[in-house]
Design a protein that fits this description.
3-stranded mixed sheet; single chain
Length: 360
């Protein structure tokens, strides 16, 4: 931090009731002196209970609002008067984007446009010292880069090649952020991260889906033959990276953030089963792997993602602290201990349903 003390700084987090956003909000309240405001529409994947650990903290505020609502965004930003805006609000599930792409364009592209316009108006009114500190930090995905073969890694110079409606919408939002920096001078940073996992993850994503379906004795669906490869990033490591970038990252820069934990999907599922076999054995003693079922692959399923995180390590000193093995067991134990969090999500219906097979 520079001349302005952290105690006086305010962080405005869009999508802060979602998986990564709520982790960031909890992390900032626990590990900094920032005041934090979460701005979230509370769509199906947002859960206010993810913010329960900080809900009573005097440095935390919550406003229910839609990033596509220009008046609501401007009012919230004007009232809170942030020094940093961290933009996480997004539709993020690839399978849902295949079924219904329009909401992804509206939220991820139009919503980002609205937030950029609101941020620009706010930044233009800030005193010189605060304007120099200000950042609009945009959290994006490695999926914008397309698909890798068996070798190589994505980095900040990789050309964009999105393959799904979701990744195309995120690519569009990334380009808007860069355009607002270069055209209007808005101080921005972008991170493109690999697959996150950890506590409070909505059950439609692979790791929580497999955990909860396993516990309920249901089939564990694996796309194709399970050979698609992802780099897994523990969500608390990601929260540290986000903070470092909006505090110390160079304006106009992009940083790729990975977990250094490439795994085939089938190996992830087998690992979950192995841990559950050890800490929560099935009643009849058989392994959870017996519940694995291979299903029709997702349309356009990218083969492999992998991140070269040398830039953020070199410039900001960040590297993942939690190994995949440590993080996965911690995640499983969290779900076993927190049924009160995930049970209401399952009771809403469809959280663990198979998706991504319908035409738009």
């Amino acid at each position: 931090m520079n001349a302005i003390s952290q105690e006086k700084c305010r962080v405005f987090v869009t999508g802060g009731a979602g998986f990564i956003g709520s982790c960031l909000a909890r992390y900032l309240i626990a590990e900094s002196d920032y005041q934090v405001l979460v701005f979230d529409k509370l769509t199906y994947a947002a859960t206010l209970t993810s913010l329960d650990p900080i809900a009573r903290d005097p440095r935390f505020q919550f406003i229910q609002g839609d990033i596509c609502d220009k008046d609501a965004a401007i009012k919230a930003i004007s009232t809170f008067d942030p020094d940093f805006i961290v933009h996480l609000a997004a539709e993020s599930h690839v399978d849902r984007s295949i079924e219904g792409p329009q909401s992804f364009i509206e939220t991820n592209v139009v919503g980002t446009l609205v937030m950029l316009q609101a941020a620009l108006a706010h930044w233009a009114k800030l005193p010189k010292e605060r304007a120099a500190l200000f950042r609009f930090h945009h959290v994006s995905t490695d999926e914008v880069f397309g698909s890798l073969g068996d070798t190589g890694n994505f980095n900040e110079e990789t050309a964009y090649d999105p393959r799904s409606p979701y990744s195309a919408s995120k690519a569009g939002s990334d380009h808007l952020v860069r355009a607002w920096h270069h055209t209007y001078g808005l101080p921005t940073t972008i991170t493109n991260c690999s697959n996150n996992y950890g506590p409070y993850h909505f059950p439609e994503k692979l790791i929580p889906l497999v955990i909860l379906r396993a516990l309920h004795g249901e089939d564990l669906p694996v796309y194709g033959k399970g050979k698609n490869i992802r780099d897994w990033l523990y969500v608390e490591d990601h929260a540290r990276a986000i903070r470092l970038v909006f505090e110390k990252g160079i304006s106009g820069s992009t940083y790729t953030v990975g977990g250094k934990s490439e795994r085939k999907n089938i190996d992830v599922v087998n690992s979950i089963c192995s841990i559950l076999d050890r800490i929560k054995p099935r009643d009849h003693g058989n392994s959870y792997v017996e519940q694995i079922r291979f299903v029709t692959d997702r349309p356009g399923h990218d083969h492999r993602y992998a991140i070269d995180g040398s830039k953020i390590e070199r410039e900001l000193g960040w590297s993942p602290r939690v190994s995949f093995e440590q993080g996965l067991e911690a995640t499983i134990r969290w779900y076993l201990a927190n049924e009160s969090w995930w049970r209401p999500l399952l009771e809403r219906g469809e959280a663990t349903a198979r998706r991504g097979l319908k035409s738009a």
